[in-house]
């Protein structure tokens, strides 16, 4: 099954089972935010497609926004916890071991931007899952990580879903 077929299937399922939409959005955001899963779950395109149905299929924006934010924040906590627990030895595990440039970029990004790196990293594809892992490896304090993680997750979810919701309403779909 190719990515296009998976995307079509998920979007169709959401359209037919609207009560599951916030949970599906949360699962997609979670998968995209966990360091190892994010390489296999390119959910941004699916989330944008689902957001386009907010106006069309009478999906409510706020539950989807909350689901996406909670899923993304939870995924980052998992990545952070893995980094805290395993330190740099986690870099030797597949698939990170086959993408050392991704880890290097994540480390440089975090070292350059610190706390703001966790916030800003949420908005850049591959960095989204690696920066929280690096924050854990480098021992960022949990309360500080959680504040930045939650703030960035809620902003990211809004920025990802609102344009699709507004566009469908603007176009009168």
From TrEMBL:
GO terms for cellular component: plasma membrane. InterPro entries: DedA-like, VTT_dom. It is a multi-pass membrane protein. This is Membrane protein DedA with SNARE-associated domain. It comes from the Bacteria. Keywords: Cell membrane, Membrane, Transmembrane, Transmembrane helix. It comes from Microvirga flocculans. The chain crosses the membrane at residues 23-56, 62-82, 115-138, 144-167. Belongs to the DedA family. It is found in: Cell membrane. Residues 41-164 form the VTT domain.
